[in-house]
Amino acid sequence: MSVLLVEDDVSIALVITAALEAEGFAVTGCDSIAERDRLLDERAYDALVTDVMLTDGDGIETLGAVRAVAPEMPIIILSAQNTLDTAVRASDTGAFEYFPKPFDIDELARTVRQAVGNASARGAGEEDAPVAGLPLVGRSAPMQAVYRMITRVLRNDLTVLVLGESGTGKELVAEAIHQLGHRKAGPFVAVNTAAIPAELIESELFGHEKGAFTGAVARHAGKFEQAQGGTLFLDEIGDMPLDAQTRLLRALQSGRIRRVGGREEVAVDVRIVAATNRDLAPMIAAGTFREDLFYRLNVVPITLPPLRERPDDVAALARHFLQQAALEGLPRRRLSEDAAKLLASQPWRGNVRELRNFIYRMALLAREDLVDAEGLEPLLASVPTSSSSGEQVGLDAAVVSWLGENRPAAGQVYDAALAAFERPLFIEVLRQTGGNQLRAAQHLGINRNTLRKRLTELAIDPGELQR
Ligand SMILES: Nc1ncnc2c1ncn2[C@@H]1O[C@H](COP(=O)(O)OP(=O)(O)OP(=O)(O)O)[C@@H](O)[C@H]1O
Ligand SMILES: [Mg+2]
Predict the structure, then answer these.
(1) Mutate to test the pocket of ligand 1, among 137, 160, 161, 172 (most ligand atoms within 8 A of CB)
(2) Cis ω before 102 (30° cut-off from 0)
(3) Is 53 found in the same domain as 28?
């Protein structure tokens, strides 16, 4: 099923293309009437979706030329000219549907499907959309608002602050802004300010000169320089120490950075996207987050709604993750409608991340290929109700979740998994033995030297685990 899309606003074209491709359509895009007519001469399309105000003319007035070559093709008109006049003109042409902008993408995709009369594009919603176009799944009204905000920042460099609870998809939004935006040819560099020791943050962000401090054996380009021409994603910005906040603010204000131990300043050309799951207002009040930095970052806030506020998205997300799980080699499962409903009624305090982990676990542990509500209940019962994101369940499930979250590189899966397993095990046993390695080795039933070697490799300090 093919659709010809005539739209000169690139960001809108991208979002529509993604939505239509997700519905199984092949989309050909163009941005002018001349191009439209040339494409229509070449081949037939199942539907035309067109904007009205185009650089070389009016998309409605010129529909005569379209009708001449494709009298039966359904036409769907989009327009920012949200006037009665355009609506009337659109219906005069016998267009299938008229959409005033901003429109609901979901609604548009549905309409195109109806127009084409294509019942087979997506059976009863059993198999979900292929993972194409927009990486974000979910068409609920709150997510539409998020998509609309994303389209507004694609063609400029305004700083974006992505807010939302843990696991709501903030990192995914940052990636989407980069991948769909005008800097997509440049690098996307993510830096998690919470994961870097305070004394190293400056050097991580701004780089350092050789000899700037003990251990600085060579000049090192910081994340700002690495992101040159692209996007710098400052994750967990609410956890950044005050000192580093001050440096960051200075860099953002001047558009220049200075490497640690360096003298000259380097101009940087990066788009900043920051994210946090913290509520910054009380932190500003308490003086732990700089108010001026907040205003610098909060140019365009995008707030991701918690999953419990968009239960309509749960089924689509669940089917999306089932598909991913199958691609990763887990058994291919399907969800019955009542099971999807049951999932949608859960609180998902860990948001999409928790749902994702649950679906992977379900793919592994379900008894039947078609999982219904009855099959789902015992699995849901194992979800600790108090958990937010980290869930403690059986090892089988933990391994599956871990694999999904961490995706170790091919050839390293076994070693990485083993290390991930040994670390909490050794720490726990050492804690029980008050940091005594000999007793820990005996308790574990492994050689003392083996334990010592592994502790070094895993950078576990038994001294810290002394009672
Ligand atoms: N709308 C979505 N569609 C598909 N996958 C999603 C969506 N939202 C989140 N995910 C997936 O859920 C997981 C968590 O998302 P992400 O890491 O972006 O969350 P976050 O908001 O950055 O959380 P945190 O605050 O804990 O860092 C990831 O595996 C991500 O791919
Ligand atoms: Mg994150």
Answers:
(1) 172
(2) yes
(3) yes
Please indicate, yes or no, whether residues 251 and 284 belong to a single structural domain of this protein. Answer: yes
pTM: 0.63
CATH of residue 418's domain is 1.10.10.60
pLDDT digits (tens, 9 = 90+) for 20-42: 988 889 999 999 999 999 999 99
Out of 352, 359, 387, give the residue to mutate to test ligand 1, the one with the largest number of ligand atoms within 8 Å of its CB. Answer: 352
Say whether pLDDT at 71 is over 70.
Answer: yes
The answer as to whether 127 is a domain residue is: no
Residue with the bigger pLDDT between 334 and 110: it is 334
Closest ligand by atom to 176 CA: 1
Cα–Cα distance for residue pair 66/44, rounded to 1 Å: 11
CATH classification at residue 327 = 1.10.8.60
Closest of 354, 407, 297, 14 to residue 177, by C-alpha = 14
- Write down the pLDDT at residue 390: 46
pLDDT of 387 reads 42
Distances (CA, A) of 444 to 91, 154, 340, 408, 448: 77, 55, 43, 26, 10
In a shared domain, residues 158 and 271: yes
Chain-wide mean pLDDT for the chain? 85
Measuring CA to CA, how many Å separate 248 from each of 31, 41, 194, 242, 373? 40, 55, 14, 10, 50
Distance 353 CA to ligand 1 centre (A): 6
324 in a domain, yes or no?
A: yes
Rg (CA), the chain: 27
Q: For the segment 374-428, what is each residue's pLDDT rounded down to a tens digit?
A: 999 988 886 654 444 444 456 777 787 788 777 777 777 888 888 888 988 998 8
Residues of the domain holding 63? 2-122
Does residue 94 contact residue 61 with C-beta atoms inside 8 Å? no
Q: What is the pLDDT of residue 134?
A: 59
How many separate domains does the chain show?
4
CATH number of the domain where residue 189 is located = 3.40.50.300
